[in-house]
Amino acid sequence: MRGKRAIGGGRRQLRHVMFQAALVASHHNPILKTFADRLRAGGKPYMVVNTAVAGKLAMIANALCKSRQKWANQAA
Fold first, then answer.
1. Could you tell me which of 15, 54, 60, 74 has the fewest CB atoms within 10 Å of its CB?
2. Torsion over CA of 48, 51, 52 and 55, rounded to 10 degrees?
3. Cβ distance 33 to 26 under 8 Å?
4. Residues of the chain with pLDDT under 50
5. Spatial distance between the Cα atoms of 35 and 6, rounded to a whole number of angstroms
6. Contact (Cβ atoms closer than 8 angstroms) between residue 54 and residue 19
7. pLDDT for 36-46, tens place per residue?
8. DSSP string, 37-64
9. Does the global pTM surpass 0.85?
10. What is the distance between the alpha carbons of residues 35 and 5, in angstroms, rounded to a whole number?
11. Does the CA dihedral 14-16-18-24 come out positive or negative?
12. How far is CA 39 from CA 13, 20, 34, 63, in A?
């Protein structure tokens, strides 16, 4: 495949909510902010960074559900 890729699979509303949450988290959550800043410094485009943060949010949510723990805000 050549050119830019697009994400169109999955549930549209859930994907929209995850991207909005990733946008906020990449600016306000210290751990995800450092992750997003590192990707931006590496020259990644906006949507690639936002998609990576959304994926990391999904992994965190799954880990919290699996371990039956609540979110604990920790500094980086």
1. 74
2. -160
3. yes
4. 76
5. 22
6. yes
7. 999 999 999 99
8. HHHHHTT--HHHHHHHHHHHHHHHHHHH
9. no
10. 22
11. negative
12. 26, 18, 9, 23
Query: What are the tokens at 59?
Result: 């992994």
Distance CA 52, CA 54 (A): 5
Contact 75, 30 (CB under 8 A): yes
pLDDT score of 11: 84
Given a contact cutoff of 8 angstroms between Cβ atoms, the answer to whether 57 and 22 are in contact is yes
Residue with the two structure tokens 């906020």: 24
Three-state SS at 36: helix
Contact residues for 18 (Cβ-Cβ < 8 A; gap 6+): 54, 57, 58
String of DSSP letters for 5-18: -----S-HHHHHHH
